[in-house]
Each structure stands twice: as C-alpha cells, then as structure tokens.
Amino acid sequence: MDLDLILNELSLQNPAPNQNIARQWISCFIKTIKTVKAHGVKANLRTKYDFHTTLLAPNYPIRRWLNDKEVDQVERLFMKTLATKTPFSTEIANVEIQSIESNAGLSEFWYQGELVVGLGVAHILDTIAVSLVSDERWNCSRLLLELRRIDENEDGEVTDEIVEILHASCSDHVQEHANWIQKRIRTGVLDGLTLWNRRDELFPSLEFSDDVYKQVQNLGSGNPMLQQVVKRLFELEESCKSWTEGGFNMETLPCKVSPESDSRLKRLSKELTFKCPDGRERVFSLHVRMTPGAWRLHFSVESGPGKIIIGYMGPKIQ
Length: 318
Description:
The chain is α/β, with parallel strands linked by helices.
C-alpha cells in the first residue's frame, strides 16, 4: 500500500550551521522514512518545492549532499530512489490543496503563529507529516494546528478549530504510529465504491441511507475528500462502540458537532430529510465539517444506543 508522507517545510527554514550537522539531519530523516517503510507500506514524499534543491547548510543543497563522498553510499542511493511528488497537489484532483499551496484558499492552517502548508495538507490527506530534526519543536509525534475556515456560503463567516495531526522526525515517533499504520493498511479504501462495499465490515455500528451511495460512489482515489470521509466515519464508529446507554455524548467525538440553525431547519426541511434503512424518513440536523471545501456529514442518533445513521455526506446543503 502507498502512503504519502508530507514534508513540513518549516523544518527547512533554517539551514544547519555546517555540513556535519546537515548530514546528521538527513541521516535521521532517512531512518524515519525507512522505519515507515518497515511497517509494510510504500512511502512517497510529498513536498512543496523540489526537494533536491533544499539548502541543508550554507552552499550545501541536497543535490550536493547526493554527491558528497563523505556521506554513506547507501543513504545517498536511498534518497535518489525515494519517490517524491512536488507540488503537494500533484496527482490530487482538488483545487483546495492547490489554493492552500498558494495561500489563497478558503482554509488556512497555522502552527505556533506561522502559516503552514505541508502540515495542513497532512491534515487534509489524513497522513503523517515528517520533519528534519532542525528544531526542538519538531521533536514530537503529534502537532496541534489551528484551522481557520471562511464559509463562502454564510456571508464569509470565519471559524477556527484546533486539529491534531500525526508527525515524525525520528524512528521513535514512527513507532508510536505503528498501530495507526497497520490500521491504515487493513482499512485502506481505494475509492468511494470500495468504501460503500466494505461499509458493513469497516463500520458495523453505522447505518447508511441510500442517498449516501450516490454521494460517495464518485469519490476517486485522487480525491482528498475520500480520506476525510473515512476519517469521520471511523471517529463515529469508535464513539458508537462506547455508547451503551443513555443519550449520545457529542464530546466523545474529536471533531466539532453542530446542529442546523432553526432558520435553516425551517427553510431546508425537505433537503435535510433522508430515508433511513428502517424505512422511516428523518430530518438530519446534526453534522460535522470536512476539509477541504464546505463538505458536511449529517447523522442521526435516534436509533441508539450503539447505532448511528449516516444520512448525507457531501457539499453543504443549500
């Protein structure tokens, strides 16, 4: 299985003071990626710019490192054969990632007060961001980002949310994500049709309206929304497993849950109504957001405990 690793461009902002330290950084970086590969995946590196032009130290770009006889030959060969994709949006059919790259999108990601691109793409693709060990702040296995969104359909309303992403700058960090990688291998879906066909296996606590099939069947492997959909469904599945009595606790979900406003419920009652597997028609007010774009996942907890109905997954209902 292929797994895209997203390079954190902030970890390349400040070059090493000398070539020896730069060699140590790259050596650690290679070990990090090799540890990912050792878990049974084919690791690809997505970068914002041409990785080989990156300046590691004064007058010492990666292209020069690749020809440095003081560098281990095995390491140089590994870097030469590492599959890299630049820009981030290569082979990804989504305008939002391209606009994030150019800092012109409806979504912005910030880390410790700095606007970021790669870390935001890692969130969208639900994968691991990787960094060089150029700063102590990259010595951690998870990062918290501020996601700032402008809702183009609600008079430019700005919403802020804290999101967590997986991160690695050394082999130990990758080991902390071993279970996540193995789960990704087991539950990986190539496209929306595969997701639909495996829904009973992957999400035994969830039920789906027939409308969902129409909404997900066209999600191709190059659509970043596919991983966002899968991520939200697994979050609902995990919360459902622990829901054994009483009402559903929204706080068990790692993402924000919102009900529709009274005005939207009155105006869009028909559009928010979906036929459920039990034959009943229900209004689906509760929803979670998905990035990129203005996608929503609408669900109902009326059949619980232990069961959630998915009524709609797609662009915000208008």
